[in-house]
Amino acid sequence: MSLQQLPCCAPDAVGGAPRPLHSPVPVITQYASAGLIGAIVYEGHDPAADPAWASSGAPDRAAYGRWCGHLCGIACLRMALLHRDGAAPSLFRLLDGARRHGAYVRQDDGSVKGLIYAPFARYAAAAHGLAAEVLPELSTRRLVELLDEGRMVMASVSKEIRRPETDPPSRGGHLVLAVGHRAGRVHFRNPSGHTDQARAAALPVDRFGVFFAGRGVALDLALPRATAR
Fold this sequence. Notes:
This protein is an alpha+beta fold. Helices cover 31% and strands 20% of the residues. Helix 3 crosses helix 4 (91-100). The longest helix has 14 residues, at 72-85. The chain is globular. The termini are far apart. Mean pLDDT is 90; it is low at 1-7 and 10-16.
């Protein structure tokens, strides 16, 4: 039996079959202007010069320029909330909440440590009723199983997953939102994708694994908000 699309967070798969893709899941980028991402990540364009910076909810241009490069996980969270609820706070409002819970830490040298999974998971549950399971050891096989269970997965990958034809120099350092799988391909949303195809992407499971660091956070959108932990 072929898989059919289910509405957001439907409780059960059809006839016990694996869950289909979550659909539709909006594409949210960590940079205010998606059309500038290629220039920012590959050509040295100053992200603070983005004319749409205010749409991120940043208090000022300087704050946007300082934080936008660290917002991949926050963009994943916003996509999940928009899919579940039809509305979500701005990127910087979500960032403020995550920072208050310790998911990001400013270092003495001005650098940023984060996204830190455990406090992020506590924030997702406390502020948004979103059950988030930290997975420090996660195989691609288990990732696919989680998608079959109807969860989304914030997966740690190389930023170069946006150019999947080339092998990455290392794995991890960036978060994408895996939203399902079909015909042996993982479908995901990439907050720093530099093209439309890179932002709403799909890769064979084995090729996804070349970029995947084997860790992430599983989000259970179907769990009733009142009972989320």
